[in-house]
Design a protein that fits this description.
With about 100 residues, the chain is mostly helical. Helices cover about 45% and strands about 5% of the residues. α2 links the parallel β1 and β2.
Length: about 100
């Protein structure tokens, strides 16, 4: 995983899809590592949650994030739509540090 994923992921975040991102990348830096806030487990306010984070970058980790996303989309369409809107509202500019957004 490299900068191509980072750049494509942050561009996609502004277009509406809810990202699924592995927390345990080595090194754990980059735009998405600072930008994706897990819908179910983040400590930030709900209006700042914008995707799904999984802990292990393996099949079970990816499956967990994708199943949570599909479950929300299928059972709670309006909440999934709000998750998408939260992602589109995310300010990925360099006007402020990432941890303050």
């Amino acid at each position: 995983m490299g900068y191509e994923i980072e750049f494509g992921g942050i561009r996609a975040l502004g277009k509406g899809p809810a990202p699924a991102y592995p927390r345990d990348l080595r090194p754990p830096i980059g735009v998405l590592a600072d930008s994706v806030r897990d819908r179910d487990y983040s400590q930030c306010p709900y209006v700042r949650r914008n995707g799904y984070v999984f802990n292990e970058p393996d099949n079970s980790g990816i499956e967990s994030a994708v199943c949570r996303a599909f479950g929300l989309w299928y059972s709670y369409t309006e909440e999934f739509r709000m998750l998408m809107v939260n992602g589109m509202r995310y300010d990925s500019s360099w006007n402020h540090p990432a941890n303050t957004t």
